[in-house]
Amino acid sequence: MFKYMPANMKSKCLIVILFCISFNGLAVQNSPPKSVVEKINASVNKVMKPVTEAVESLVFYSFKIGGNSIPFVLVWLIVAALFFTIYFKFINVSGFNHAVKLVAGKYDNLEGEKKKEAG
After folding, report:
1. pLDDT, tens digit, 9 for 90 and up, residues 63-92
2. Which of 1, 3, 84, 118 has the highest count of CB atoms within 10 angstroms of its CB?
3. What span, in angstroms and rounded, lies between the C-alpha atoms of 70 and 66?
4. What is the dihedral of CA 55, 57, 58, 60, to 10 degrees?
5. Rounded to 5 degrees, what are φ and ψ at 68?
6. What confidence score (pLDDT) does residue 30 get?
7. How far is CA 61 from the centre of its chain?
8. Rounded to a whole number, what is the distance in angstroms from the first to the last CA of the chain?
9. Neighbour tally for 39: CB within 10 Å
10. How far is CA 108 from CA 75, 102, 112, in A?
């Protein structure tokens, strides 16, 4: 597993593995015996649950505009789409015809080779 990894990547990977194993004891003690993987999953879930709930409450936060509830993630996606459309000089509009031709296969025979007939 570690044969092709750089040295600093190996140490980081080992630290993560040791971190996960060290939280193995945080699993609920009253439940029936679990496998090692289930214990690791439970301890990681216990540690990460507050983080994911905080991120979820931020990303999916909704605010009201004119009686309508608008999620923050929708506004973020619209702003990003407008920014990249302007930054790349409307390539999504100006290159649409080229994209349709490319998908249709108009540029498959650029080398001047004859297509082989089936049969």
Report:
1. 898 899 999 899 999 999 999 999 999 999
2. 84
3. 10
4. 110
5. -105, 145
6. 57
7. 20
8. 48
9. 20
10. 40, 8, 10
| Helix H or strand E segment including 53 | helix 36-59
The string of pLDDT tens digits covering residues 34-61 is 788 888 999 999 999 999 999 999 888 9
Q: CB within 8 A of 64, min separation 6: which ones?
A: 70
- Report the half-sphere exposure of 35 (CA within 13 A, side-chain side): 3
Crossing angle of helices 36-59/72-87, nearest 10°? 80
pLDDT at 3: 59
Q: Where are the domains of the chain?
A: 1-43, 60-106
Task: Give the list of residues 6+ apart from residue 67 with CB closer than 8 angstroms, or none.
Answer: none
- Is pTM beyond 0.70? Reply is no
Q: Which residue has the tokens 């999953």?
A: 41
Question: Which amino acid would we find at residue 39?
Answer: K
CA dihedral of residues 55, 59, 61, 65 (deg, nearest 10): 160
Q: Extract the tokens encoding 112.
A: 């001047």
**CB contact at 8 A, 54 and 73:** no
